[in-house]
Write a structure and sequence with these properties.
This protein is of the alpha/beta class and 307 residues long. It has a single domain (19-304), classed as P-loop containing nucleotide triphosphate hydrolases (Rossmann fold, 3-Layer(aba) Sandwich). The protein has eleven helices and five strands; from the N terminus they run H-E-H-E-H-H-E-H-H-E-H-H-H-E-H-H. It has helices spanning 43-67, 84-91, 110-113, 119-122, 144-147, 168-187, 201-213, 223-229, 232-246, 261-276, 289-304, and strands at residues 71-78, 100-104, 131-135, 190-198, 253-257. The protein has a five-stranded parallel β-sheet, with helices on both faces. Helix 1 packs parallel to helix 10. The chain is globular and about 75 Å long.
Length: 307
């Protein structure tokens, strides 16, 4: 039986989302991209639309698992407070809990630093039939370390004795390494989707204030968030360069307006569903003739087993 997902209708008053406008093709152009999208809909309407899409994604994951030849990697990047955690929580509600694994990559451990920077990401790749979500990703190695190159000295890299050794050629090699890594895993059965949650500086300010003013959010706030905020322009520049250098057909980047969390979640879900349903080879396996012939016998055995 071929996998055949229906068109995404959402709600009656809402048009189907044009997912192509979010894909990075020919340049990210972050300053020209909007950070707010609500499709002219209420919070409830956006939530209702998301429910429709994520149910279909949950069904797809069941078929993906039965098929057993692909894994799906979802990469999420964004400035602090861009909504990565809540997006993961809301997007995968209708998945079998065993069908999705979330990895949050923090500061590298001593063990991870004894390996190359891609090692910890490689071992977290999805099994065939499952989704893996990278909450922050291997791109931290051309983002945080580019804004704070002193962190590279912890990696004990050959030829890097001081910050003077970190030139443009170093970063170009890292982009090439990341592209090669993604090309390799794409060729061996991993479907890759990369999302940059594009947040405005003003919206981040409001969300940081919420973390301070709302008692149940205090635990989310870190003074370090304010220090990183001062480097906003540096991060935006590094994001733009990374997206331009690493968006490929086998591993595309999507820039998702993130000021409205419900709109961002719906966009990400819609992109995933629209792209995944194009894989017509992903379908549940058909039982062979010998097994099918025995099904009636199995049924009779179970029907006799009544106490």
């Amino acid at each position: 039986m071929e996998w055949d997902l229906p068109e995404i209708h959402y709600i009656q008053s809402m048009e189907k989302i044009d997912t192509a406008v979010y894909k990075v093709q020919g340049g990210a152009n972050l300053p020209q991209r909007g950070t707010l999208e609500d499709f002219g809909q209420s919070k409830k309407a956006l939530k209702d639309a998301l429910k429709e899409v994520r149910k279909e994604l949950g069904k797809f994951q069941d078929t993906l698992y039965a098929h057993g030849r692909y894994g799906v990697l979802v990469c999420l990047q964004g400035m602090d407070t861009s909504g990565k955690d809540s997006l993961i929580r809301e997007l995968f509600k209708d998945f079998n809990a065993r069908g999705v694994v979330v990895h949050s990559f923090k500061v590298p451990t001593s063990l991870e630093l004894r390996h190359d920077y891609l090692w910890r990401h490689y071992i977290a790749l999805p099994e065939r039939g499952k989704f893996s979500v990278f909450n922050r990703t291997h791109y931290e190695n051309v983002l945080v370390t580019k804004v704070h190159p002193e962190y590279l000295l912890n990696e004990n890299l050959p030829g890097i004795e001081s910050l003077e050794d970190v030139d443009e050629g170093f970063w170009e090699r890292r982009y090439d390494q990341i592209n090669a890594f993604e090309k390799h895993i794409a060729q061996t059965g991993t479907l890759i989707f990369k999302f940059f949650l594009h947040l405005s500086k003003e919206e981040q300010r409001q969300r940081l204030l919420d973390r301070i003013q709302e008692k149940d959010k205090n635990w989310k706030f870190s003074p370090g968030d304010l220090e990183e905020r001062k480097l906003w322009k540096d991060y935006q520049k590094c994001y733009g360069e990374a997206l331009d250098r690493t968006s490929r057909e086998y591993a595309p980047w999507y820039v998702v307006p993130a000021d409205n969390k419900n709109g961002a979640r719906l966009i990400v879900a819609s992109i995933l569903l629209e792209a995944l349903k194009k894989y017509q080879d992903i379908r549940e396996p058909e039982p062979d003739a010998e097994f099918r012939a025995k099904l009636e016998f199995f049924k009779q055995e179970l029907e006799k087993d009544i106490k």
